[in-house]
Amino acid sequence: MQIQKNNFIQQTFDNSFVIKQTEDFVYKKLHGEGTGHDWYHIDRVRKIALKIAEKEKADLFLVELAALLHDVADWKFHNGDESVGPKVAKEWLESLFVDEKVIEQTCNIILNISFKGAHVNTKMKSLEGMIVQDADRIDALGAIGIARCFAYGGFKNNPIYDPNIKTVMHKDFQEYKSTRGSSINHFYEKLLLLKDRMNTKSGYEIAKERHEFMQQFLNQFFKEWDCKFY
Length: 230
Prior knowledge:
63% helix
């Protein structure tokens, strides 16, 4: 029993070390980033994911690690290359001598976490992946989600709204990557779809409130766009 207890203490210490080192690594990479994919996005996703993970009785270490690394090299900033994020994460975790199975699971979550189009199935296989995906999508909703949508739209030089640009329900990832629309269109092409794509009941409950707030925002936006004062 004493040996098992000592092993548990050592494992907990090792996990804490890995998390702290990974925090510092990601902070240095993403602090001050201006598109809404910054360190504070990472930290919010981590906090949301851990809250869900506690309710779902998931592996907290794997959830926290994947949440911290999920945007370390997002394909949106690497010419659409999905392999960069998992590669950077793998090299980092190997440098910390993290267990190979944990590295594999973490990289799998990073590879499959992103929304890739309205008609593209990106559901995770593991509970931990489902939780981190829910947390990432929750941070794309509500007041924070609205702010992030326009921050990224500005970065891409997308118009706020153009009635002549039609909404596209992308049939595959390539179409999703290559289509240029407006920030308002992004609500209909992605953000408003996320509530019903939550993997967990806990995630759905959080997403529902934020979804309703976005609908209120859009109602007000179009009221102002059409100059309806009364």
